[in-house]
Specification:
Structural class: alpha/beta
Shape: globular
Order of helices and strands: HEHEHEHHEEHHEEHEEHHEHEEEHHHEHH
Oligomer: single chain
Radius of gyration: 24 Å
Strand content: 5-15%
Helix content: 25-40%
């Protein structure tokens, strides 16, 4: 952030006070008795501080017409002029923020966080139908177990593979339950030049060392001490393992892994998040693909990386908190979530029916091993340092130096600790 940070934050807070304090309603926690939400015609504005499928927006709007015809929803996309900070500065804060759990802590400066706990009790909202672990992951920005928002959907991790490449090399397809070492051995068998003269790469882990490290629950920076935590055996194992993939002759990094898999069809296996829309387009262009469970560490079986939880958060400044909660209740209702699951989105609800129905109305998922993704659970979402993004970028750069032979792994990790700590120290001065 630029040197004008304090003025910028003060401006935001002032705008919020102007927009929200003049006609503040009594806080739900102070109400003596449960009241029914007003049936007045209202428009609930939702700022989209993360992306959401147009189809899911439509689902929510259509179900809302049935559940609460007096409520209209306006989705505000985050483009120049209507980003969340700009809305707040303009005195037009939204009623709900659509975001993901990793961003909650950053909203402290905006002074919009609202603990929904009293309102949930007032309106008799039962949180028992959510998966407890996902509900906990949605609270990572809460210091005292506050409920700042409810989960709407979440990402998953999977290993995707090109069936045609495996057929060309006469190698059996990947299967659920593989360890990283088993993927390494399989990658060696499908790396080479095919009959058409194309160099085929066996495997790419996508986001390199960062995603591969996540199932171990290790961080680049300790959020409590704000010190780098790179120089240890776990990070050494991650660095060495990822390098072992790129050291397979013919499997050296080349281009964008996602494009190599989806467009060029020159990558046999690829790990990524929820990329169904991309796969749909790629399948239309001839990609013969399938998917299996994300690889595991022997000491962390059936665990994949961070599953960002998309959330709906009521803002402190909303003048229609009860109706905003009705919108959220509709969005996480069985009706909306079941259709959402059938279209290939992972629901935060715990009923097994949502998993069994996953992908059943999406042609691109017909006949695919979609149930493999549910054989793993996400690692507990970490409370992250505010320096996480910049520090992880430094890790990627240093890994490249190690991978290309410029430095050894011990030097890479020790230098990372030093350089990340210098970066943090410089940022605090």
């Amino acid at each position: 952030m630029k040197p004008c940070k304090s003025f910028f934050i003060a401006t935001i807070v002032s705008a919020i006070m102007i927009a929200g304090c003049s006609s503040e309603k009594p806080k739900p926690g102070n109400m003596a008795s449960t009241t029914s939400p007003s049936s007045e015609q209202v428009t609930i504005k939702i700022s989209m501080d993360t992306t959401l499928d147009e189809d899911l927006m439509t689902q929510i709007q259509e179900q809302l017409k049935k559940d609460h015809p007096n409520i209209t929803v306006e989705f505000i996309k985050s483009v120049k002029g209507t980003t969340l900070p700009e809305l707040i500065i303009a005195g037009q804060p939204p009623d709900i923020v659509l975001t993901y759990n990793g961003k909650i802590a950053s909203y402290q400066d905006f002074d919009i966080l609202y603990d929904m706990t009293p309102l949930l009790k007032q309106m008799n909202v039962d949180l028992g139908h959510f998966d407890p672990s996902i509900l906990e992951d949605s609270k990572i920005g809460a210091a005292n177990d506050e409920v700042y928002g409810l989960p709407l959907s979440l990402n998953y991790h999977a290993l995707y593979y090109n069936k045609d490449i495996f057929d060309k090399f006469g190698v059996p397809y990947p299967n659920d339950g593989m360890t990283w070492d088993q993927v390494l051995q399989l990658a060696k068998k499908v790396t080479g030049v095919d009959s058409g003269g194309m160099q085929i790469r066996g495997f790419d882990p996508g986001n390199s060392v960062i995603w591969v490290s996540q199932p171990l629950g290790i961080a680049v920076v300790d959020p409590k001490t704000e010190k780098a935590t790179m120089n240890n055996d776990q990070w050494k194992k991650v660095f060495e393992m990822v390098k072992s993939f790129y050291s397979i002759p013919g499997n050296e990094p080349k281009g964008t892994p996602k494009d190599s898999f989806l467009k060029d069809k020159a990558l046999a296996m690829y790990t990524d998040l929820s990329i169904i829309n991309d796969l749909e387009l790629a399948a239309a262009n001839g990609l013969n693909w399938d998917m299996v469970q994300y690889p595991s560490y022997p000491e962390k079986p059936n665990i994949y990386g961070n599953a960002s939880v998309n959330m709906l958060m009521i803002t402190k400044t909303s003048q229609h908190k009860e109706q905003a909660l009705q919108v959220i209740q509709t969005a996480v209702s069985d009706a909306v979530q079941l259709e959402s699951a059938r279209k290939g989105r992972v629901t935060p609800l715990k009923d097994p029916k949502f998993k069994s129905e996953f992908g059943k109305s999406r042609d691109v998922l017909m006949g695919k091993n979609v149930q493999g993704i549910f054989k793993s659970k996400p690692v507990k979402y970490p409370v992250a340092s505010k320096y996480r993004s910049k520090a992880e970028s430094m890790v990627r750069d240093k890994f490249t130096e190690y991978m290309t032979g410029k430095i050894d792994v011990n030097t890479a990790l020790s230098r990372l600790d030093e350089e990340i700590n210098r970066m943090i120290q410089g940022s605090t001065q």
